[in-house]
Amino acid sequence: MRQAELKDREEELNTKISILIKKLPTESPTKKQLSNHLERFKDSVSYLSNQEHKLAFIGNIGAGKTTAICHLLGLIDGKDPILSTGSGRTTLCEVEIIQSKELQIEVFPCSKTEVISYLKDFAQYLLESKANNSDNSEGFKLSAEVERALRNMLSLNVTRSKNDAGKSIANDSAKNFAQDYANTEDLVTAFLDRITLGERIKTIFSNPEKEPQNKWLHKTFKAINSATDSQVGLAKRIVISIPESVFSNLDYSLSVVDTKGVDQTVNRQDLDCCFTNNRIVSVICCRFNEAPDKTMSGLLENAKSAGLTQRIPNETVLLILDREGEAEGVIDIDEAVGDKNEGRDIRSENVSSDLLHSLQLDNLDVNFIDIKTDDMSSLQKHLSNKVSAMRDIRLQSLQEIESAVSDIESELYSQSALQAKQQVKSTLEPWLKKAENCHPSLKEYFLPLIRNISDKGTYAASVRASVNRRGEWHNLDYYQTLAVGARQQIVEQIDSLKNELLVLIDNMLAQNELQPAYALLKQLKYTTEKRLDDIYQQTFAKGRAVYENKLNTDNALWGELYREWGQGSGYKGRVAKGSQSWFQHGKYPDIELSVTKVAVEKWLMYVSEIQDLLGREKS
Fold it and tell me: Cβ distance 236 to 114 under 8 Å?
């Protein structure tokens, strides 16, 4: 639908509502309903006016999501996916593919501070390897893709040769280079002299020679991703623009995001945004024989703990990547089924059953693809239909609101409408009493962070990288974990009331005699989902903000935690203990109370709004 048409409909509705409101007394619940209808209409118009949507592919390192994206979009050079330079651990950063007029690649590089942090990590690793005195069980090493890029930028690679006996021998020029330096600071300074960041400033790469698209993309992306191009810095994000896309025929823009592969934790800020942003469909990728793997379950659990249970079926796809023979090899009773579709059906039932049992999630969208044998057009259609359905919900909302306002206009003094709405109010009164008595509160929401630090699944390398960056590291982000902890506590205290209300509303929507109140019921449902989602996200933001500046600027804390490395085994436990002590000695109850006040204030405002929509008793 054209934006001009949307605005015309909005203006028309606004005029109609303004006329109706003037006819009503100040305290009339109908007046509140009309104002709420207009807000909801504007929200849907705003959503539909924005043409940009994304498919965010998420999965473990090496799960095959990057290869799946390339086949989905037809980005294949010969037999090679243009974004893949080997098996697993190849994508340096997030990559987004968009449709544009010109073929180009844009690089958003790491800042100098971020590059220095990586160089510091690398220097520490090299010096500790030389001294051979790092914790045996908790050794530190950069991720393979970052180390590869840094080595290329520094021209300090590993070469291999064979000795007289034919045995392969590695010659690490970086370790040889580090032999001349006694401490991290001097080695980092030498790295900075060698890396020539001032010359690595090119961010836009185009194809002036008009090489075949995929050949040029493959070659250029590889040079950027591995930093072998001497003009490019260490990439933090890459955007690929292509003139033609398999999604070109849509009436909105649909880009594809290849998120950085999951390693250790799913509690990452970028992944959280994929699920909380209602313009993004999250495509969780998993290998066939591992479905549902720990990452898939963890991502869905995080979405649920963010209060997104009702949105998961509409905004998430579980994409199971199978290979030749895997589906046919599924065992049914005591033998392989021998049929791909039957094997997929059985695995789909198993995945759905597992997630229903473990997370109480149902109506999940489970799909399968074998990139070597399946026609990708079915997946292309399914994913675009998923986004289109999200937009259709908003279009339907516009029609429902226009109809509801027309009904209000024609039934302003209708007894049947008044009786139906009174019955809705009577049904919800017990719920309202419970809601009024609910005062959500926070208590020690820093504890999940402390548990994450010492958890056996958290690498010591991630703890050290986070400490080196004052808590800001994607695999152990102090501030993200605090924000999630605050939000989760509020969701746990409110979501049961939310779900109870939604059940009551759905039950009343199934009663024919309440048809005159259907618009009000849908309005209550929308208001509940919108306001509580806002409460959860405001708690998330506030839960981070109240600690962020205090924590980030505490030089004494980070100095103390920095010195814990190299003090023997138990490094993670010492960092966890030091971090917990900081919170406990920092008047955390007062800090957390400020977040609680925001949540309680917004909750009571929501309850008051529901009462206004239903109509308050006259005193």
Answer: yes
**Backbone conformation region of residue 286, classed left if phi is above 0, alpha if psi is from -120 to 50, else beta:** beta
Local confidence band at 618 (pLDDT 50, 70, 90 cut-offs): low
β 235-242/94-99 pair status: parallel
Of 117, 91, 552, 555, nearest to 125 by C-alpha is: 117
Confidence category of residue 239, pLDDT binned at 50, 70, 90: very high
Candidates 367, 335, 374, 321; CA nearest to 348 is: 367
Residue with tokens 């509580």, as numbered in its chain? 532
What angle, rounded to 10 degrees, do the helices at 478-509 and 447-454 form? 120
- The percent of residues above 70 in pLDDT, for the chain, comes to 97
What is the per-residue pLDDT across 405-442, written as a single tens digit (0 to 9) for each? 998 888 777 888 889 999 999 999 999 999 999 999 99
What is the distance between the alpha carbons of residues 444 and 529, in angstroms, rounded to a whole number?
27
Between CA 151 and CA 149 the distance in angstroms is 5
Determine the pLDDT at residue 87. 54
Q: How far is the C-alpha of 303 from the C-alpha of 306, rounded, in Å? A: 5
Q: Where are the alpha helices (DSSP H) in 510-570?
A: 518-552, 555-562
Q: What is the CA radius of gyration of the chain?
A: 28
Q: Which of 263, 265, 259, 262 is nearest to 484 (CA)?
A: 265
Q: What spatial distance separates the first Cα and last Cα of the chain, rounded to whole Å?
A: 47
